[in-house]
Amino acid sequence: MDDLDTGKIDEMVLALLYLTLHDYNRAWKGFDWDALNRLYEKGFIEDPKNKNKSVAFTDQGLAKAERLFHRELIETFDRGTH
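Request: output the structure for the sequence above.
Response:
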């Protein structure tokens, strides 16, 4: 699976994190640790390596996650491409 597009994977994980949004800027972190670490390195989420069951979005990450969520999950569904 060396041909995986990790950038696209990261976008999808960010959009799915938005799906579990709670307490304004927190999301459940039940996703692949490599993807979460990449999102942290890109500045979209706070460090996921802690005992919390959720992770906090940065302001930049929350805005991007919302855009991706609507673009990839809402608009795609509305266009009937599901």
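The first helix runs from residue 6 to 19.
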